[in-house]
Design brief:
alpha+beta; eight-stranded mixed sheet; 12 helices; 8 strands; 17% strand; elongated
Length: 256
């Protein structure tokens, strides 16, 4: 059966399929399939965008989906703790997080320089490498516009690129370890993300201040939650577009 609730909500607002598609950034035929082929539900982000556009609950348009209150409750359950800024977080929280990793170990930053100077962190990386944990480091491409902009945003200018290069040098002993991979990205980061299996720390980026003054979300994945997965999916997108490197000097010679 067609999704008559979706069709009716569009009609009630006097919108055409073309207008809905344009506002959502999809093809009109895609919206038509959402109506005529109920099994072809949109991705979650489009469900919420459509519900917002049509001023309906997601669970009204797609009855098997949860209400916004249920989604909010799950999100609250995922939040272990909110820190007003990184400087008040005990350094051991990062090492404790990564020491528990059994499958996955991700670091997504521009430089994350402060972590590169932690001897305990280096030891944990080596231990997890020996245990067969997949370890991924994603640092900013030093010559990329994104790194330059972040340097300007923090008020340190070219020092941001220098911090990335110094971080790569500090990580030198970790290159070549089994399961340890490094990539350089040129994306705009809104958070530095530190993930170990189903737990993560997301350090926000705020214009005009260093990350150490920005909030940190301590998240843990729970059944039905979406907050953790939203951050985790962004990590995957950065990883897919980032450039693999095999040594600290590999950033040289690129104009990306």
């Amino acid at each position: 059966m067609p999704n008559e609730r979706l069709r009716g909500a569009i009609v009630d607002l006097g919108l055409t399929l073309d207008e809905v598609a344009q506002r959502l950034g999809v093809a009109a035929k895609t919206v038509e399939r959402w109506i005529n082929e109920p099994d072809r539900k949109p991705y979650r982000r489009f469900q919420y965008a459509t519900a917002s556009l049509l001023k309906c609950e997601v669970s009204y348009l797609w009855p098997d989906e949860r209400t916004s209150a249920e989604v909010t409750a799950s999100g609250n359950a995922e939040l272990v703790r909110l820190y007003p800024h990184r400087s008040v977080v005990m350094q051991t929280l990062w090492t404790d997080l990564y020491s528990k990793a059994r499958r996955q170990f991700d670091v997504l930053v521009y430089s994350g320089f402060w972590l590169t100077e932690d001897a305990t962190f280096h030891r944990i990386v080596k231990e997890k490498s020996a245990e067969g944990v997949a370890i991924r480091f994603m640092l900013g491409e030093p010559t990329s516009p994104a790194v330059a902009v972040r340097g300007d945003d923090e008020g340190i200018g070219p020092a941001m690129a220098a911090k990335v290069r110094n971080a790569l040098v500090n990580y030198g002993p970790l290159f070549g370890l089994p399961g340890v991979e490094f990539r350089l990205h040129s994306t705009t980061l809104y958070n530095s993300i530190y993930r170990a299996d189903d737990e993560m720390l997301a350090n926000g980026h705020i214009y005009g201040v260093g990350a150490y003054l920005a909030p940190v979300l301590h998240l843990r994945r729970v059944p039905g939650g979406e907050l953790f997965d939203a951050y985790a999916e962004s990590v995957e997108r950065v990883w897919e577009s980032a450039r693999p490197i095999s040594s600290p000097a590999d950033w040289e010679g690129t104009n990306r």
